[in-house]
Specification:
By secondary structure, the protein is of the alpha/beta class. Helix 7 links the parallel strand 6 and strand 7.
Length: 160
């Protein structure tokens, strides 16, 4: 949300079923929230975009279902980016061909963008630390992952 807003996106649609994540997405710049998944979620994206689909889609979950949904939400000619390492994702060449979308992912170019991002944080233009809504000692790392999996936390900050 922060990146899309910083890059000047006119409309930023977040897909989330969890109130705390929805609230943070709105605070970070989302203009619309969609709680539906699968075909219903895709239909709502299409309704918001005059049946065209999104110009750019960021897939952040890494599952086969979320990847398929991201591709289906994109308009022809759009870019679908994925962050993290996909797990259990297999792409069908024919469906990708007819979707007419580009798919790209990989490690973030941190060294290139870090100076700008640090400046945004230090000048209080953004506060990405708000995603950390649970702090635990390093010894409780398993509990941190469990809390995120159970949606009791957005992100866990581990204290050393």
């Amino acid at each position: 949300m922060l990146a899309a807003k910083q890059l000047g996106a006119a409309r930023i649609i977040a897909m989330s079923r969890h109130k705390t994540r929805q609230d943070l997405a709105l605070e970070f710049g989302a203009t619309d929230i969609i709680a539906a998944r699968g075909a219903e979620g895709v239909a709502q994206i299409k309704a918001l975009t005059q049946k065209i689909g999104a110009d750019a889609v960021l897939e952040c979950v890494g599952t086969a279902e979320s990847t398929a949904q991201a591709i289906e939400c994109a308009r022809p000619g759009a870019m679908v980016g994925y962050v993290g390492v996909p797990h259990g994702v297999q792409l069908d060449g024919q469906s990708m061909f007819f979707a007419q979308v580009a798919l790209m992912g990989g490690p973030a170019p941190v060294r290139r963008v870090l100076p700008h991002l640090i400046d945004l944080v230090l000048t209080r233009q953004i506060n990405p630390g708000k995603v950390f809504d649970l702090q635990l000692p390093l010894a409780d790392v398993a509990e941190g992952y469990k809390a995120m999996d159970e949606r009791r936390a957005i992100k866990t900050l581990l204290l050393v």
